[in-house]
Design goal:
The chain has 350 residues and is of the alpha/beta class. The strands form 2 sheets. Strands 2-1-4-3-5-6-7-13 form an 8-stranded mixed β-sheet, with helices on both faces. A 6-stranded mixed β-sheet has the order 9-8-10-11-12-14, sandwiched between helices. α5 packs parallel to α6. The radius of gyration is 20 Å and the shape is globular.
Length: 350
């Protein structure tokens, strides 16, 4: 697997970007298209925080790694640069497409403007974008999730386990996507126990996306919520969420993780006992499925939605302390069934 390292300069030329590839195994940087190449090649362009965030980007990487192992594709990873513009993303995607990668997958809604510009120029290449359905085209696959549904289940669990009747929500950046997490969580809490108080907090506002990448911001926000009496904190903040998890763990309170099963993330092993559960998004399989569809010659396009009904979102059951809470699990299972059968409609805005 090749990995394009983080670029410090915001205005780097795409040619320089291509030259920054570092070898990882035997991989070619040929400019020929995948259809002309003996080897199938695919690429991930990471979101803010990059690989190693123990959350969203790492889930996408797991899908790429699975495709390499099971499908024999050669993968390239491209890291974001700090404070980059849409033009930088355009250069990155263009370079990956010219190198013959197919599909090229933008990990996160921030790639929408870039994919809108680049995809029409490479009609034979499939472009995937995770968490965005606003940009469409004949060669664009929009991978989206019902985050609010999984978050509702987290709200049920939080309302059941809190002893202080106060729980916290930390959103990385106040965007419509992250508001879905807040909306579902708050509704789940209130439907379960209206007496429980929810403290919502966002780390940054667009266009400042540091709230997805700086753990210190998450740590400070979590400490503030703990000081206000929260004993369960749900963080949807990417790499910044790891700071929140640390603070909550050291206080001996409960965390609820996000995107990946954070109880099993090696980088969070020191805090795993505090991670009650995580709201998971099956980003891994969504990435794998898109790559497989291209390899099979039947590329996915249009909106591809993953919800509770397809186990595309859900709650992780890795922590034995959580699964031992039979009353809590029963309440979660009941809510899941009612969401799937339409008895409960989960809001997408607070």
């Amino acid at each position: 697997m090749r990995r394009i390292t983080r670029i410090a300069a915001a205005g780097v030329m795409s040619a320089a970007l291509a030259l920054s590839v570092t070898a990882c195994g035997d991989s070619s940087s040929s400019s020929s298209s995948s259809s002309d190449s003996k080897d199938k090649k695919t690429a991930l362009a990471y979101d803010i925080g990059g690989r190693g965030d123990q959350s969203f980007n790492d889930a996408a990487y797991a899908g790429l790694a699975k495709a390499e192992k099971e499908l024999g594709v050669k993968g390239t990873e491209a890291e974001p640069s700090d404070g980059e513009s849409d033009a930088d993303k355009v250069q990155r995607l263009t370079s990956l497409a010219r190198a013959g990668n197919n599909p090229v997958i933008g990990v996160g809604f921030a790639y929408a403007p870039a994919i809108k510009k680049v995809a029409p120029k490479f009609p034979k290449i499939t472009f995937g974008i995770i968490d965005d359905a606003s940009v469409t085209g004949p060669n664009i696959a929009n991978i989206v999730f019902n985050e609010e549904q999984g978050s509702y289940l987290a709200g049920v669990a939080a309302a059941k386990v809190t002893k202080t009747k106060t729980v916290g929500f930390i959103g990385g950046v106040e965007t419509p996507l992250i508001k879905k997490f807040e909306a579902g969580f708050t509704q789940g809490v209130k439907d379960t126990d209206s007496a429980v108080k929810v403290i919502p907090q966002y780390l940054t506002q667009p266009p400042n996306f540091d709230g997805f990448s700086k753990p210190d911001l998450g740590k400070a926000a979590a400490q503030g919520q703990l000081d206000k009496g929260a004993d369960v904190v749900y963080s949807a903040a990417g790499l910044a969420g790891s700071g929140a998890i640390e603070a909550v763990s050291k206080a001996g309170k409960w965390n609820i993780g996000v995107d990946s099963d954070q109880y099993n993330q090696k980088g969070l092993a020191a805090y795993k006992e505090s991670i009650l559960t995580s709201v998971t998004k099956d980003v891994e399989d969504s990435v794998f499925n898109l790559i497989k569809s291209v390899v099979d010659g039947k590329p996915q396009t249009g909106e591809i939605r993953y919800g509770l009904d397809k186990d595309g979102v859900g709650l992780a059951m890795s922590n034995p302390k959580f699964t031992a809470m039979t009353e809590v699990i029963a309440a979660v299972d009941k809510a899941k069934k009612e969401i799937i059968d339409g008895t409960i409609t989960v809001k997408t805005t607070p």
